[in-house]
Amino acid sequence: MTQILKLDGVSRAFGAVKVADELSYGLAEGEALGVLGPNGAGKTSMFNLITGTLQPGSGRIEFAGEDITRHSAARRSRAGIARSFQVPQPFTHMTVFENAMVAATQSAGLSGHAAERLCLEVLERTHLLDKANLPAGGLTLLNRKRLELTRALCAKPRLLLLDEIAGGLTEAECRSLIQTIKEIHASGVSIIWIEHVVHALMAVVERLIVIDFGRKIAEGEPKAIMASPEVQEIYLGIAADA
Ligand SMILES: Nc1ncnc2c1ncn2[C@@H]1O[C@H](COP(=O)(O)OP(=O)(O)OP(=O)(O)O)[C@@H](O)[C@H]1O
């Protein structure tokens, strides 16, 4: 199977804090990978390393067979890497549609009707079409999360990085978001999903990795990983924090 992403011995420290410590793993094209780990383990930093807003101290990152370790964030975005942020970051004074258009024009490089068509398609997939003309600042938390997804999808990603998108939602809202993410996955987009809401992860991902102190401490089939005593101990800590 073709690998869309490969991290090879990626390390980065802030002073004494290692946010990535010899991190190595691969992601197959079309695969959904879950990432679990306690607060401060380095999960968001790993996304920053993949998207190019943080440079590794050492190691190599490949995307679609190309070494992107020194590529700029803008170049990686154009190549098809998109992310959602843990704290939704819409342009609050703009409408939902205008927010989508920013991503379609600036990240996917589209203009005119092509950009509008993509935005409408994505807004339908993310169930925000009926909110298209509302200001983004007034959306509920679920719809702000849906807008995060919309903005990422309007960049036409091959790889979608989701950062704790299920946090803070009610059970019913979480189920509805899981369904949308399943549909995105089924459309062929490769996904890496950092999440503390473990049942949401388990409903979607085919493989899990667990990170602690920037190190990968477990990797494999989700149920087997969750059953391991080492991960159970960390998970109890995560459940207490969540
Ligand atoms: N730019 C930075 N400068 C200094 N320290 C940083 C920087 N970015 C992150 N850190 C520190 O690195 C550690 C890892 O942070 P990171 O946000 O990657 O963890 P995380 O696993 O995503 O945590 P959470 O689950 O709380 O979001 C934390 O101790 C954080 O304070």
From TrEMBL:
Cross-referenced InterPro entries: AAA+_ATPase (IPR003593), ABC_AA/LPS_Transport (IPR051120), ABC_transporter-like_ATP-bd (IPR003439), BCA_ABC_TP_C (IPR032823), P-loop_NTPase (IPR027417)
Source superkingdom: Bacteria
GO CC annotation: plasma membrane
SUPFAM superfamilies the record matches: P-loop containing nucleoside triphosphate hydrolases
Example GO biological process: L-isoleucine import across plasma membrane
Domain ABC transporter, first and last residues per copy: 5-238
Classification via PROSITE patterns: ABC_TRANSPORTER_2 (PS50893)
SMART domains according to UniProt: AAA
Keywords: ATP-binding, Nucleotide-binding, Plasmid, Transport
GO molecular function: ATP binding; ATP hydrolysis activity; L-isoleucine transmembrane transporter activity; L-phenylalanine transmembrane transporter activity; L-valine transmembrane transporter activity
Name of the protein in question: ABC transporter ATP-binding protein
Naturally occurring in which organism (per UniProt): Pacificitalea manganoxidans
